[in-house]
Specification:
Helices cover about 80% and strands about 0% of the residues. By secondary structure, it is mainly α. It has one domain (about 1-269): ABC transporter involved in vitamin B12 uptake, BtuC, CATH 1.10.3470. Helix 2 (about 10-30) crosses helix 9 (about 175-215) and helix 2 packs across helix 10 (about 215-240). It is globular, with a radius of gyration of 18 Å.
Length: about 270
């Protein structure tokens, strides 16, 4: 067990960094009722990365990251400006269309590449087990800045999310736009580390588990953080023991933990 802990030290720190910001954003996403926005933006970021790779750039190059970030910003702008109070088409439909179109286009772009399948696999499940200390510190610094910004204007962001949930007349356009832009930074950086599926799991599953058990934003954040760290550790250990992909192992572990907490919640009623 000690050998496993030593091996997953930096990946576990990366998971801690991802959990810290994603649980908070996940609570906003669940409150807003746009559950799949993270999956869609993550796929858009992956599409941007695919474009960079096909242009001959390295997967981890700064230029590739900037291309992915540009794609994500376009998606963020789309989602923030397609939401209206009396929308004829639900925003979830726009989000779903964006996801499937981005995923299909990424597959088409890689279809003629000799390493296409490998690239698609990497973008979907990531390589968190091989994360470097440099990437961990860079990601932490970025998320810390975003976290401070959200903390400074937490009342505005919370009010915007509640207004969107309740479909009230409060004008949330500016804070909605700022939410999606900061969200875009997070998703683009997270996909680079963890892949599309794991990023979505970090965002939604701990937040949903927290909503099941505790009340109050602060308590839900703490519960979600603990859930994310424990699930990440168990998933990483399982991937090493059974020699299976780490990202997929963490996703399945999160889902299993959520199922168990859901059963426990039913017995507590």
């Amino acid at each position: 067990m000690i050998d496993y802990i030593d091996l997953v030290f930096w990946p576990l720190l990366a998971a801690f960094v991802l959990t810290g910001i994603h649980v908070y954003l996940g609570l906003h996403v669940v409150t807003r009722g746009v559950i799949f926005v993270d999956l869609a933006l993550a796929q858009v970021a992956a599409l941007g990365t695919a474009v960079g790779i096909l242009m001959g750039l390295e997967h981890d190059a700064t230029s590739t990251y900037l291309i992915a970030l540009g794609f994500t910003f376009l998606g963020a702008i789309l989602f923030s400006y397609t939401r209206t109070r009396n929308e004829k088409v639900p925003q979830e439909a726009i989000i779903g269309i964006t996801y499937v179109a981005s995923a299909a286009l990424m597959i088409l772009l890689f279809s003629k590449s000799a390493e296409g399948a490998e690239h698609i696999n990497h973008l979907l499940i990531g390589s968190i087990l091989f994360v470097t200390p440099k990437i961990v510190f860079q990601t932490f610094a970025l998320y810390a800045v975003i976290g401070i910004f959200h903390y400074m204007y937490r009342h505005q962001f919370l009010s915007a999310s509640r207004a969107i949930k309740n479909n009230t007349t409060v004008n949330t356009r500016l804070w909605d736009f700022l939410f999606y832009i900061t969200f875009g930074f997070v998703v683009t950086s997270s996909v680079k580390i963890a892949g599309v599926l794991l990023v979505f799991s970090f965002l939604i599953i701990p937040a949903v588990a927290a909503l099941l058990f505790v009340k109050g934003t602060r308590n839900r954040l703490v519960f979600g953080w603990i859930f994310g760290i424990v699930g990440s550790l168990l998933g990483m250990i399982a991937s090493l023991v059974f020699d299976i992909p780490t990202g997929a192992a963490i996703v399945v572990t999160f889902a299993a933990m959520l199922s168990v907490t859901g059963i426990i919640k039913q017995f507590m009623l």
